[in-house]
Design a protein that fits this description.
The protein contains 14 helices and two strands. The protein has 261 residues and is mostly helical. It has a two-stranded antiparallel ribbon. A hairpin with a 2-residue loop joins β1 and β2. α2 packs across α6, α4 runs antiparallel to α6 and α8 runs antiparallel to α9. The longest helix is centred in the C-terminal third of the chain and has 28 residues. It is globular and about 50 Å long. The protein starts with a helix and ends with a helix.
């Protein structure tokens, strides 16, 4: 399997689907839709949709059954990036090689663009569950998985713990791993499990994919921390050194770069 080709294929598939599912950037009110499209189509690897599709295929499912989940997850991921870049959070000026949403449209519109993408994601999932989903019960499980991963028990909870870690000494490796499991790992896990559920997966397959996704989410965030120190801003498309600037708890800060690797 050629991973680069697979990522290109999955990216085209989810982007095409999102264009059909979302209002156009010229739809009224124009400013909010332009801000949503600006961030949603700013590039990126579309890794979470790729994981969703791959998990669906791994259990013998049809990729088209996983498209609504993959699209919703990518919208939720984009909303989280918009909010993460805000001055009240990481205060970043660049994302994927171009100015962040709030730098182009202002803070208020950026907040609302993130809110709108999150809400549209669940509108898409609801329509899928009520219409094209092969099994409404499984569709309900997919919605529950994604909702839990995005909320206070998942990504948002991880962000809160991450902010709290900036204000105190933190709780060592165990506490940091919990932050990563929620902040980053929860949506990786939701991507994999949602794809597997949409493809009809169950039992040992779900257990194996769950273990895989948890490990992948942790590894991804640790290496993201490494790249924030040693990476090239122009290749990454975002500023480096922000973790040190914001005094964030990270694996390199705790163990050094080599042990983090």
């Amino acid at each position: 399997m050629d991973l680069k080709k697979y990522l290109n294929w999955s990216s085209r598939l989810v982007e095409s689907a999102m264009r059909e599912m979302l209002p156009s950037q010229e739809a009224y009110p124009v400013q909010i839709h332009r801000a949503m499209h600006y961030s949603l189509y700013a590039g990126g690897k579309r890794l979470r949709p790729a994981l969703c599709f791959a998990a669906c295929q791994a259990v013998g499912g049809r990729v088209e059954d996983a498209v609504p989940a993959a699209a919703a997850i990518e919208m939720i991921h984009t909303y989280s990036l918009i909010h993460d870049d805000l001055p009240c959070m990481d205060d970043d000026d660049l994302r994927r090689g171009r100015p962040t949403c709030h730098k182009v449209f202002g803070e208020a519109v950026a907040v609302l663009a993130g809110d709108a993408l999150l809400t549209e994601a669940f509108a898409i999932l609801g329509a899928w569950a009520a219409g094209q989903a092969p099994d409404p019960r499984l569709a309900g499980r997919v919605i529950a998985e994604i909702g839990a991963a995005a909320g206070s028990r998942g990504m948002v909870g991880g962000q809160i713990l991450d902010l709290e870690a900036e204000e105190g000494p933190g709780s060592g490796a165990e506490g940091l791993e919990e932050i990563y499991r929620l902040k980053t790992g929860a949506m990786f896990r939701a991507s994999v499990i949602s794809g597997a559920l949409a493809g009809g997966g169950s039992g040992q397959a779900l257990t194996a994919l769950n273990d895989y996704a948890i490990s992948l989410g942790l590894a991804f965030q640790i290496y993201d921390d490494v790249l924030d120190i040693v990476g090239d801003q122009f290749k990454l498309g975002k500023p480096v050194g922000s973790d040190i600037k914001n005094q964030k708890a990270t694996f390199p800060a705790l163990f050094g770069i080599e042990r983090a690797r």
